[in-house]
Amino acid sequence: xxxxxxxxxxxxxxxxxxxxxxxxxxxxxxxxxxxxxxxxxxxxxxxxxxxxxxxxxxxxxxxxxxxxxxxxxxxxxxxxxxxxxxxxxxxxxxxxxxxxxxxxxxxxxxxxxxxx
Length: 116
Fold this sequence. Notes:
There is one protein chain. This protein has 6 helices and no strands. It is mainly alpha-helical. It has one domain. Helix 3 packs across helix 4 and helix 3 packs across helix 6. It is globular, with a radius of gyration of 13 Å. It starts with 6 loop residues before the first helix and ends with a helix.
């Protein structure tokens, strides 16, 4: 599996394989496990998904850092990838973390559809 390199490619691939709704369901499940008060409707537009999730990540980084770390752990985002991000601009970092989080969720959904 080759991971999408940007948000647009990820959404295009998810929609072409009819897995976008499953991506949202997987994200909702992990948000619930992480005790994050956020749930997306299965018909949420990709742009809304990205913006709301990025805003949530931004707020978690700034005010609930332990919840942010817990979410990364629950989703299983690569620690190495997180450490490689530039933390000097929190807004840019929240955008990058949002993509890494969605990328990992996409990996889970893709593997389940392919092998389960």
